[in-house]
Design brief:
The protein is an alpha/beta fold. Helices cover 31% and strands 21% of the residues. A hairpin with a 5-residue loop joins β6 (160-169) and β7. The model has no long low-confidence stretch (mean pLDDT 90).
Length: 678
């Protein structure tokens, strides 16, 4: 690589930057010198990270904090590089990668998982027993056979049962498998395994599950359920790989808590009426379940795909890996440094840190590498990016955003495509044009490189200097304002498809009674009342189109209108309807809206509970006067009537004896003798 150290140092804010040619071998002493003189060290090499870490181990507590970033495969090894002099575009890209890597990234919150190595192997025959024996010396194994019988082993060192799996739940360290016809193998089995005793139903508790039935998996998205393995039983390689991974899953593990959930702004439900179910519908693992008016996130089941956070309209679900606002700070630093260092029209390549890094490495080593203008941006999951990320990238100057979707994400593509289509609608509506966001599913590095190099150039984007922070709505507001200020076509409103998280409402004011049900249901405060008078107002910027107001309205006069408004009026509450208050007919105090009281009286007129004289008039009174009127009309308003006499067992026995005696007397009067006392 040809590296322009001075330009890189200047682009990185004048930070010290030393250029080496063979730091990991011939110049290792230079690394040792730098390690002794600095408390923090950023090394632009990931391949030899183990060597550098090993070298600093002997320094003990005085060892510096080491960070690593890769500018070779991601920038230097590219067909756009010049062997004789530094390419300005490549240098700008290196500077952007170095600046991004120098940011402090706080640790994400986590949960602890404990596995004792209790393994349940489920299968139809010999393959299940063979697999169980391979790991029985490392794990506590139990086998459940669900299919045909087989020859019994000569040495019964593993518990073997027969059973039928009817359900399962849980996660690594806490699985529960429901089994019917659970029967142990008979020790006297001869030609084939026999099972003795009456089958029972119960639940098997285990830490790990190896499912070799070859049938439908026990869980949705089985590859995302930690501790559960269901390889093809006919593929020995996959079975061996699963067994190898299982033996490592013993002990205590830390798993990221991927989602930071704020129930106070969740739009799922109010008072039992359902509004938004987007996260519930999109979660592939079933980690999200309804919980009253909110939802419950199970961090032990969550696989971190991030689809819930990407589509949550209010931002109640926020992706927490990394924590805080670091994702947006990385984005601003990467794009801003690239442009500051002389780069032009950056194109952002969003990829995950495993499959994506591997694809980039292969392209760099075996092909032409990434184009100089394509900036790789690693995230935990490619499906975690949503509308706010895409628009923020555009507002910071990204000419195009390309999302590399790895294999196995097909079930999450539709959700991601919905977000990208919505972002495209907004950008196109502002005059920036279409085609600025793409999802690519190329699994061949050569095909991916060809796709990236074949991207058609687009007009440049303005670079906003805002700092994105907060939850989704706050970030969206900042990005949209920046895009609108510099838009080629700064329109007032953009029509959006149904389901978009922006919009207004149309209220049929003739039918609205200002009952304020919508105010109580709205999770974002878009609807507001007025304590001084009957009044309903609405702020369009706060509306997320969850539909709770519409579903709650007793008069059915609310209609959702999906759109994006940049008008100043959309930023504040605008009065929809107001009335003079209804005055109490007794004391004159205002206590409600006229339309509400009149509608209520109209509906209750003629009702059996309001036929008494003055009953309807009480509805026209305030709370205090209503009670006073009831007391004046009834001399004993607290009377409860006569109390019934208490009856005891003696009363019932006495009455029964009296009835028996009366029957005997009647028979004597008729000249009959009773045969017995009954």
């Amino acid at each position: 690589m040809t590296i322009d150290g001075k330009t890189l140092a200047k682009a990185c804010g004048g930070k010290d930057l030393d250029v080496a040619t063979h730091l990991c071998r011939a110049q290792l002493n230079e690394f040792e010198r730098q390690a002794k003189d600095n408390s923090k060290l950023l090394i632009a090499c990931t391949q030899e990270a183990p060597l550098f870490l090993e070298t600093t181990e002997e320094m003990g507590d005085s060892a510096p904090e080491l960070r690593f970033t890769n500018i070779r495969e991601r920038a230097g090894w590219t067909g756009d590089a010049d062997a004789k002099k530094a390419n300005p575009a490549v240098t700008a890209k290196m500077a952007a990668l170095l600046a991004e890597a120098s940011l402090d990234v706080p640790a994400a919150p986590s949960v602890s998982l404990v596995s004792g190595g209790v393994l349940l192997v489920i299968g139809k025959g010999q393959e299940a027993l063979d697999a169980a024996r391979q790991v029985s010396h490392r794990l506590d194994v139990t086998v459940i056979l669900t299919g045909d019988t087989m020859t019994p082993p000569g040495f019964m060192d593993i518990p073997i049962f027969r059973g039928r799996i009817t359900g399962s739940q849980g996660h690594i360290g806490a699985f529960q498998v429901e089994i019917e016809d659970f029967t142990p193998a008979s020790p006297s089995s001869r030609a084939e395994i026999a099972f003795e005793g009456a089958g029972q139903s119960g639940t098997s508790v285990c830490d790990l599950i190896l499912d070799l039935r070859g049938d439908t998996a026990l869980f949705t998205a089985p590859d995302k359920r930690d501790g559960y393995f269901n390889p093809d039983p006919g593929n020995p390689t996959l079975v061996s790989q699963a067994l190898l991974e299982l033996t490592d899953l013993v002990g205590e593990f830390e798993k990221p808590r991927y989602i930071d959930y704020d129930a106070s702004i969740c739009a799922h439900s109010r008072a039992g009426i359902t509004g938004c179910t987007r996260c519930l519908d999109a979660c592939p693992t079933g980690a999200i379940t309804p919980d009253g008016d909110h939802v419950n996130y199970d961090p032990y089941i969550c696989a971190g795909c991030g689809t819930c956070a990407s589509i949550c309209p209010t931002g109640a679900a926020k992706y927490a890996l990394p924590a805080g606002d670091v994702l947006y700070e990385r984005l601003r630093t990467l794009l801003g440094t690239f442009l500051k260092a002389g780069g032009e029209n950056p194109q952002l390549l969003v990829h995950d840190g495993d499959w994506g890094d591997e694809m980039i490495g292969i392209m760099a080593r075996a092909g032409g590498g990434l184009p100089a203008g394509v900036l790789p941006f690693a995230v935990n999951s490619a499906t975690q990016v949503g509308l706010e990320f895409l628009l923020t990238a555009a507002a910071h100057g990204a000419q195009r955003v390309v999302i590399a979707l790895p294999p196995g994400k097909a079930e999450e593509k539709d959700t991601l495509a919905g977000e990208t289509n919505l972002a495209e609608t907004v950008l196109d509506g502002l005059g920036y044009g279409a085609g600025r966001i793409e999802i690519v599913e190329e699994t061949d590095p050569e095909a991916l490189e060809k796709r990236l190099r074949g991207l058609a150039p687009l007009p440049g984007m303005p670079s906003g200097g805002f700092i994105a922070m907060g939850r989704k709505r706050s970030v969206l507001s900042l990005a949209l304002n920046a895009l609108h200020e510099n838009a080629p076509k700064p329109v007032d409103t953009i029509e959006l498809p149904a389901g978009a998280p922006f919009g207004a409402v149309e209220v049929n004011t003739d039918g609205c009674t200002i009952c304020l049900s919508c105010v109580g249901a709205c999770p974002t405060g878009a609807f507001k009342d007025n304590e001084e008078m009957p009044q309903l107002s609405f702020a369009e910027e706060a509306c997320v189109q969850c539909g709770l107001c519409r579903n709650t309205c007793p008069e059915s006069v609310i209609t959702l209108v999906p759109r994006l408004s940049f008008l100043e009026a959309a930023r504040s509450h605008q009065v929809i309807k107001q009335e003079e208050p209804f005055e109490c007919i007794s004391c004159g105090k205002p206590f409600g809206a006229k339309s509400t009281i009149e509608t209520m009286i109209g509906q209750l007129e003629g009702h059996s509970m309001f036929t008494d004289e003055g009953a309807l008039d009480r509805l026209r009174m305030c709370d205090d006067c209503r009670i006073i009127d009831m007391a004046e009309q009834d001399a004993h308003p607290m009377a409860i009537g006569s109390r019934p006499k208490v009856r005891t067992t003696d009363d019932y026995l006495r009455e029964r004896e009296e009835l028996r005696q009366q029957a005997a007397n009647d028979m004597q009067d008729k000249g009959l003798e009773p045969e017995d006392d009954s």
